[in-house]
Structures are given as structure tokens and as C-alpha cells.
Automatic annotation (TrEMBL):
Pfam families: Phosphonate-bd. This is Periplasmic binding protein-related protein. The lineage of its organism: Bacteria, Pseudomonadati, Pseudomonadota, Betaproteobacteria, Nitrosomonadales. Gene3D superfamilies: Periplasmic binding protein-like II. SUPFAM superfamilies: Periplasmic binding protein-like II. It comes from the Bacteria.
Amino acid sequence: MPLGARAATTPLTFGVFPNLSPERQFRLYQLLTDYLEQRLARPIQLYTAKTPRAFIDATQLGNFDIVLTPPHLAWLAEQEAGYRPLATYTGTINGLLVVAAASRLRSAAELRGSTIAIPDPLAIVTMLGISFLQETGLRRGTDYQFVNRGSHNNAALAVINGEVPAAIVGGLSYSQFPENMRSKLRIIGTTIKVKSFFFMANPLLPPTTVQAVREALLTFGTTPQGRLFLDHGHFGPILPATAHNLTTMARYGVEVQRLLKESTP
């Protein structure tokens, strides 16, 4: 088989950050995967990971040809593994401080002495949440404690099930929760907004493939399946991205580096 034909039929690996359950993740991204396969005329293998740490490790090892990852981890992938920005959603990411719908809590200040559920210490919304709580006069480790629930969904369920009085979850993830789940929660605080997820290309991908993937991503939103995908996920349109778009994420990426170093045996 000619080398060019072989390259065209070799699957592209697409790694998606694990911010939803694997079942919901694969169901949501199947529309995009099918479109990329059609446009690029080659198979796309969709992957995620059990934890953010595992996803970061796989990205750093270059296991994915394309990744879709939060902005601070996109900065990290660029700095440490040479990944190149392709595109990003126009929507934004923020954190929400939620309590049970029937809770008497009305403000973050009332959480002094409490335990707050989080999706993961490495999540951008956790970092935004720490800053938000600090602005209300609450210091982590002194005025409140975190408990890691491993996902946005599980953090919210910890509140619904009465295990903790409050949780920090992503605004995007909250919008993707089923209505019967959102109806059991109430928002009492909102963090600042930062850029949304970035599509990044492995530095070993040929320039022609990188350009083809970028063009496919940018035209996806003009198709019926693309509009359905973007509306259902509450992502906003897909726009081109450059390294310049990631500069504001440096402070959060550096914090991830510190946390990873601390957790390494």
C-alpha cells in the first residue's frame, strides 16, 4: 500500500477531557467524531481517561493526535508537550457554588466551617472557586475544607444526597445536568469567567493533517449535526485559536504544575 494511502487510513486518536461520565462523553462527541471521519476520510478513535491526572499524563506522553482540554491544561500541553492550538469554543468556563434547593444557606460567607465538594483539585473551576471564596473572606484549610468527588456530577450529587452543604461545579457541566438534577440545586455564588475548552494538535502531526483538522472543526458548526452538537452541549460556536489565546491561563497552568509535583511520590 502506498505510504500516503496508509497514512490516510491510520486512525487519528482524539482525547477528550473527562468532565462527564464516559457514557455521556462518548454519546455527546459521537456527532463530532462522525463528522471528522467523513471530512478527513480516515477513522477517528475517541478516548478519555478515568481522572484528570490520567488525562494529563496521557497528553504529556503524546498519546493523542488531537485533544480537547480545559484552557489551563491546554497551556500546559503547549508548554510541556508542544501541542498546538487549533480551535476553541466561544463559550466560557466559570464555577458555580451550589447548595440544595431547600437549603437555608444564602451566601458563601455562611459556609465557614463547612466541607465543600469539588470535581477535582486540578479542575479550573476548583481554582476559580478558591479565588471566589477567598474574596468573600474564606480561607481554604482554615475556614472550609474540600472533599474531592472526582467529577462535577458526583460533586453535585453529594449536595443533593445531603453529604455536604455545598459544592463547586462548572457552569458548563451544570447546564448539561438533567433538569431533574438542576431542580434540586440552587446557585449561591458565581466565579469569574475564563476561556473555554481548546482543541489542540500533537506536534508530530503533519502540517497538512493539522490544517485539515482545523478546517473541519471550523466548518462543523455550519452543518446540521454541528449545530445540534453545539446547542446540546451549550458550547457556543467554534473559532480559530492561537498560542496567544492561552497566555492568560499561565497562572492556572503553573498551579497545576505545582499540584502535580506535590502529588508525585
